[in-house]
Design goal:
Elements (H helix, E strand, L loop, with lengths): L20 E2 H7 L3 E5 L4 E6 L2 E6 L4 E4 L3 E4 L4 E3 L2 E4 L1 H11 L11 E9 L9 E4 L2 E4 H19 L4 E4 L9 H9 L7 E11 L9 E6 L10 H7 L4 H31 L5 E7 L2 H4 L5 E8 L3 H7 L2 H22 L2
Helix pairs in contact: 3-9, 6-9
Bound molecules: zinc ion.
């Protein structure tokens, strides 16, 4: 169970003012989409395949994750996002296609699926009418399904499990497995950790998807970039890249959440997309999510989660969410 429950994408409306234009109204006026995470105070505007990443207080925007433009910083006024005129000009020009910037071609080279717990660590336990249910068993069953489907779909990529039996890799082992995967500069790895929830409140039910804030500082700024842009912005470039990975985690979380809603939402209510800094991904250099498939302590949901058919549905939904994300990421 997690204490924190911040759900993103809240943007309050705001009146227009001389030099502070409401981000929401701007977004609507150009028919773009706005996503904003109040926890990290970062967000992005999107229109078709173009993205503008921003961060409250940062005097830059990143276009399609790569090219940076100096603009006035977005800020919060009475809880609403407002932006200066030059922000509008640059963002609008880019989103409406009046820019020559090309999207980066990253490839997802590896996917690491992590069945929570294992071995001596059972995870959550529930005593159901049909018998005892252990979190470690159902996370393994679902993870194996996800990996099997991913391997069939992507025979040329590294698809890995942190464990494929009832063993107990430590959190450090799991993180090392991810971090030691060899990647080329234009390759990325995604990390999907699968868990089930428990609560003393037997009525608690539903699934959650958490995205994680990797404290990830890759040295993105090569010598040429620094020469071109000047030393002073190198730390900001690095910070933006860190946010890029948070944003990608949010998008991965959204894709998986939507698929779970479609697959099991009638039986298990979606409890939202949430943010937390988990140890297991705090050191991981990749977009990462953690899925809580449902509450094994809820009598009805526990019953569902003890059935292979239901677990297969969840596995298929997670798989489809990852496929959606890859299609987006490599567009
Ligand atoms: Zn767990």
């Amino acid at each position: 169970m997690l204490a924190l429950s911040v759900t993103g994408f809240l943007v309050a409306p705001n009146a227009w003012a001389a030099d502070s234009i409401s981000m929401l109204e701007f977004t609507q006026s150009i028919k773009a989409q706005l996503s904003y995470d109040p926890l990290t105070q970062t967000g992005y505007l999107s229109k078709e395949d173009r993205f503008v990443l921003f961060s409250v207080g940062a005097p830059f925007i990143a276009l399609n994750w790569t090219e940076l433009k100096k603009v006035g910083a977005p800020r919060l006024e009475d809880g609403a996002l407002v932006v200066p005129a030059d922000f509008i000009r640059e963002a609008q020009g880019f989103l409406n296609g009046k820019s020559t910037n090309k999207p980066t071609n990253y490839a997802i080279a590896a996917i690491l699926v992590d069945p929570g717990h294992g071995g001596k660590d059972t995870g959550a336990i529930a005593d159901l009418d049909s018998g005892r249910l252990l979190e470690k068993d159902i996370t393994l069953e679902v993870s194996k399904r996800v990996v099997q489907l991913l391997k069939e779909r992507y025979p040329d990529r590294k698809i890995m499990l942190t464990r494929d039996d009832d063993s107990y890799p430590t959190l450090e082992d799991r993180v090392n497995m991810a971090n030691s995967t060899a990647l080329k500069p234009d390759e990325a790895i995604i990390y999907v950790s699968i868990h089930a929830n428990a609560s003393f409140n037997k009525n608690a039910k539903g699934f959650e998807v958490w995205y994680l804030n990797p404290e990830y500082r890759r040295t993105v700024v090569d010598a040429n970039t620094v020469k071109e842009k000047g030393d002073d912005i190198a730390p900001i470039l690095n910070a933006m890249l860190e946010e890029e990975f948070t944003t990608e985690s949010i998008i991965l979380a959204r894709n998986v959440y939507d698929r779970l809603s479609a697959a099991v939402g009638k039986q298990s209510p979606g409890r939202g997309i949430r943010a937390e800094e988990w140890f297991v991904v705090r050191n991981a250099k990749m977009p990462s999510i953690l899925i809580e498939m449902g509450f094994i302590t809820n009598p009805e949901e526990g019953q569902l989660l003890s059935q292979s058919g239901y677990l297969r549905k969840i596995g298929d939904a997670i798989y489809n969410g990852i496929v959606d994300f890859i299609a987006y990421f490599e567009r």
